[in-house]
Design brief:
Two copies of one chain form a homodimer.
Chain A lengths: L1 H5 L6 H19 L4 E2 L1 H7 L4 H9 L11 E2 H12 L5 E6 L3 H7 L2 H5 L2 E8 L8 E2 L2 E5 L3 H7 L4 E4 L3 H13 L4 E4 L12 E4 L3 H13 L5
Parallel strand pairs in A: 3-4, 3-7, 4-6, 7-8, 8-9
Antiparallel strand pairs in A: 1-2, 5-6
Amino acid sequence: MAKQDNEKKKISESTIHRLSLYYRALSLLEKENYETISSKELAKREKLTPAQVRKDLSFFGSFGTRGLGYPVSELKTRISQILGIDRVWNVAMVGVGNIGSALVSYKEFQKQGFSIKLIFDNDQRKIGSNHKGMIVSDIKEMSTLLRENNIEMVILAVPAIVAQYIVDEVVEAGIKAILNFAQINLVVPDDVFLRNENMSMELEYLSFALSNQYTPG
Amino acid sequence: MAKQDNEKKKISESTIHRLSLYYRALSLLEKENYETISSKELAKREKLTPAQVRKDLSFFGSFGTRGLGYPVSELKTRISQILGIDRVWNVAMVGVGNIGSALVSYKEFQKQGFSIKLIFDNDQRKIGSNHKGMIVSDIKEMSTLLRENNIEMVILAVPAIVAQYIVDEVVEAGIKAILNFAQINLVVPDDVFLRNENMSMELEYLSFALSNQYTPG
């Protein structure tokens, strides 16, 4: 127990992802007017074990009453605080090609508090044009505009070949959180949080499942 | 050790995802003409521990020679076989809105062997039109066309409200692997592999990191 207390801060990557899942499940339950939910039911909805759910949620102090389950709204609020989505984040999108363009209109981002405030491209035909209600800014003005608009996160949807060059500028402008869609391993200083989104990974998971005829868990 | 042997088939979800990462790293190393790579170097490239890399790869028999490292091409081939990406998969895209449309031109899918053969929509203005070299088919003909074209995987990029209805039809047409982009928990029979892609999850990971000023090792 002492060990667990010491390691309280060491939440694993998969736990954070499961918190996102719980948050979604709880949002839905709230809409369906559920007041409480058991770990068993929450686990079933997310195809996890009740023990896993209890373990994940135990990181954040004691929740729920034996026999009654977790209070839906309270737990949802607590998870949103832990994930830091109980506020709005100012986000900039760099690159409005196929993926970048689709993401600008991805309603889920806005819904979770990720508000895209600026969009950038280097294509002269796109710069200055109205893109889904926002004016595309010149990437040359990126450093200045990121600072002036208090941007806190950057989504990078640029070709792999220019991604490192652009990420260096983003870092130089003081951004500490970057989500990269380019298929390349970017180098950033230790104090910058970088995540890579790879959409073919889930298809590879499916091809693994079909080839081996099983999925884990 | 006996226990580990018995559980050889039980590769975890995170291991499969890491295999995807290794595959990418090895593809790049091959291009850079590397013949061998140490677990230490591979770990460094993917920001993992060497022990983790060795553990993951040990699932698949013995690779590498102490002191020499893993043979790049051989390991890459082996991982592609494990992931089932040593072949081409016939994929259909259902829904060509913002996200679906962007994914049809997402080169990474094609590169990894996921070949989008058919695209469907229910919008009369889109049906029959040429969309990035492919004709948009009427969703009403989906069942027939999925069978006729030996489609093996379906990517679902439709509004949440119709997703369950459509997934039922997809399952009825004999599809056993589905990647869902709609923000809803879909119900499928046990013999159907379903994965959900949630692009705001990585942003939530970043907001967690910024709020708590750390990311898990």
